From TrEMBL:
UniProt entry keywords in alphabetical sequence: Signal
UniProt-recorded name of the protein: DnrO protein
High-level lineage: Bacteria, Pseudomonadati, Pseudomonadota, Gammaproteobacteria, Alteromonadales
Keyword Signal assigned: yes
Stretch forming the signal peptide: 1-19
């Protein structure tokens, strides 16, 4: 847990200041994703594999989350599995620096969602944050294998 917290802080510190800022609302990132001069950012196999794993995990849980029947214990278990996928991405993804900086914005939102899911309050909002990041991923990253 300390390792993930330190990683979260590190991600927030290394994300470039050049990224476009917007009005900060409660629970939203102060940084926003942007395209690469109108083009999507490249991906590698490590990123595709990790993001696909996150999508599979969330797809399996979305029905119960939507109907508010997902238990606190299930949120904790799902958060642990999602954390494992994020750690896989951090370990295996090797993008060019500008693409990596954009990815860190997306992953910071996912890390916040995972942390919310580990708590006893706002677990559902954490899952929603992860779903929003999953929705944004193909809009900003050129993952030709994404389905």
């Amino acid at each position: 847990m300390i390792k993930l917290t330190l990683l979260s802080v590190l991600l927030l510190l290394v994300t470039p200041v050049m990224a476009e800022e917007h009005v900060h609302h409660h629970g939203e990132s102060a940084m926003s994703l942007s395209l690469n001069q109108g083009e999507k950012w490249p991906v590698d196999d490590g990123l595709h594999t990790g993001m696909s794993g996150i999508k599979i995990l969330m797809s399996a849980a979305i029905g119960e989350i939507h109907h508010n029947t997902f238990t606190a214990e299930k949120y904790l278990n799902l958060a642990g599995e999602l954390q494992g996928q994020l750690e896989f991405i951090f370990k295996n993804c090797k993008l060019p620096p500008a693409a990596d900086a954009q990815l860190h914005i997306l992953l910071a939102d996912m890390l916040q969602g995972v942390e919310q899911m580990k708590g006893r309050e706002e677990q559902r909002q954490g899952a929603i944050k992860i779903m929003k990041a999953l929705h944004a991923y193909p809009e900003y990253f050129a993952d030709g294998k994404w389905q």
